Amino acid sequence: MDILGGRQFVEIPGDEALELPPLLIHDGKDPRRMHRVMGLASQVVEKEDLIPHVNLPPGLEDPDLERRKMEMAINLVETYMGLLRHWQWGDAILEWIRQCEITFDSRPDLKRLLRPDVWPHAGRSSFVTLLEDKAVETGGVEIEQAVGMRLTFRQPPPLACCTDQFLFYLNPAIANTAYQRWACMNPQPISALPPERFHVQVVTM
After folding, report:
1. Domain boundaries in the chain?
2. Tens digit of pLDDT for each residue in 133-153?
3. For a disulfide at 56, which of 3, 6, 60, 191, Cβ 3.0-4.6 Å?
4. Paired sense of beta strands 7-9 and 2-4, if any
5. What is the mean pLDDT of the chain?
6. Buried b (16+ CB within 10 A) or exposed e, 111-127
7. 3-state secondary structure string, the chain?
8. How do residues 49-91 score in pLDDT, each as one tens digit?
9. Is-contact 18 196, C-beta < 8 A?
10. Which is nearest to 144 in space by CA: 186, 174, 120?
């Protein structure tokens, strides 16, 4: 068992780099969907009174009101699409972990690493840490938040079900809490997977 700083790494026989299943990311970009989301965001802005009212004399209208409503709707869409990207990454990562577990279970030299009755051993969160150690390019998606978002929602929540408070303030904290709780479910102590021993390929579908 190697120890680097405060981290412990499982020991893997040999020195060759091991190929893990590809991490398949589905590109959720769809112009038709964006158009629908923009329409829903405009309705949310209108119904939730997200734009503060300006007290004007009777008969006068705020000339900037429509512009501010449009800007708020665009802001809502961008925030919501960020949530969807995190959910999609989280969904892909959980499926990738399942594929990695199948791969480990099929190899005698790796199978013991996932047994909680043997130490040092790796847990499911070790695969998330491996992606972070490999500095996988995510396009701005926080990996732990992504997994936490997928753990929180079986399906991506529709915009109409999300409050502005959740979108703007609460969803990162909720996702992080979900991930940390999930990561602690494996029997401790959990050791990390040495990143130099594994090859991870990200494929955008």
Report:
1. 18-27+88-204
2. 999 999 999 999 999 999 999
3. 60
4. antiparallel
5. 85
6. eebbeeeeebbbbbbbb
7. CEEECCEEECCCCCCCCEECCCEEECCCCCHHHHHHHHHHHHHHHHHHCCCCCCCCCCCCCCCCHHHHHHHHHHHHHHHHHHHHHHHHHHHHHHHHHHHHHHHHHCCHHHHHHHCCCCCCCCCHHHHHHHHHHCCCCCCCCCHHHHHHHHHHCCCCCCHHHCCHHHHHHHHHHHHHHHHHHHHCCCCCCCCECCHHHEECCEEEC
8. 666 655 555 555 666 767 777 888 888 888 898 999 999 999 9
9. no
10. 174
- Residue 49 zone, left/alpha/beta (φ > 0; ψ -120 to 50; rest): left
Calpha distance 148→150 (Å, rounded): 5
Nearest to residue 191, comparing CAs of 132, 106, 123? 123
Measure Cα distances from 180 to 1, 122, 157 in Å.
Answer: 25, 16, 21
0.90 exceeded by the pTM? no
- Give 64's strand partners: none
Distance between CA atoms of 199 and 19, rounded to whole angstroms?
5
